[in-house]
User: Which sequence fits this backbone?
């Protein structure tokens, strides 16, 4: 799974990240560049995560391995 993407929060913020760490109750995101306040690292509870945008190509098999079903269309 790629380590880069954009996390969408329940408070309508989109956070681009270049790496992450996980824990049972929290997610730590690392930004490549600081945000407007100078922050490079963000710690979030999972309940504020609304979505994940993946900016790299990921094969369907990666998602199927964790329980997703179906197929992507051929390009």
Assistant:
């Amino acid at each position: 799974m790629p380590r880069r993407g954009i996390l969408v929060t329940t408070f309508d913020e989109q956070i681009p990240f270049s790496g992450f760490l996980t824990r049972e109750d929290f997610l730590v995101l690392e930004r490549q560049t600081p945000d407007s306040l100078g922050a490079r690292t963000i710690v979030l509870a999972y309940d504020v995560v609304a979505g994940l945008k993946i900016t790299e190509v990921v094969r369907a098999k990666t998602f199927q391995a964790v329980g997703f079903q179906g197929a992507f269309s051929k390009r």
